[in-house]
Amino acid sequence: MDIQDIWEEMASRHSCMLIDMDGSRLRARPMAPVAKPADGAVWFVTDVHAAKDEEIERNPQVCLAFMDEGDRFYLSVSGAAQLVRDTAKLKEIWSTAMEAYFPAGPDDPNALLLKVTPEQAEVWQGDGTLTTGFKMASAILGEKRADLGQNAKFRM
Hints:
By secondary structure, the protein is α+β, with helices and mostly antiparallel strands. Helices cover 25% and strands 43% of the residues. It is built from four helices and eight strands. Strands 1, 2, 3, 4, 5, 6, 7 and 8 form an eight-stranded antiparallel beta sheet that branches. The two termini are 13 Å apart.
């Protein structure tokens, strides 16, 4: 797996958890990412009245957590977030699903872009359930550590 694979994985996912700092505590919330490798960014549409906007202005460091338990795929992406007012970009990434939150479409005055510029990513990719179970059982019986898949870190 390489950085291009990381971008492709992010682009293929319809949701992730956005983790930011709420004062001195971490806070996670589900979000719909739009990964654009040409921009070097993962975009989100958020509401101008959302608490996360104030949290990110205070501390722009965030983490995006992607997971697909069925595929045994886990991805953590750390980076810097910023709020962006850009109607052209909003129209570019707009999907009909976003209208559930912003009925006026990309011109909705409450729709605001959140741009995350990835700095580091870490991925874990495992085998299927049966293979993983077999490897775990073999490790337990052999009193050794199980090899449950690949793990890699990337500077973005």
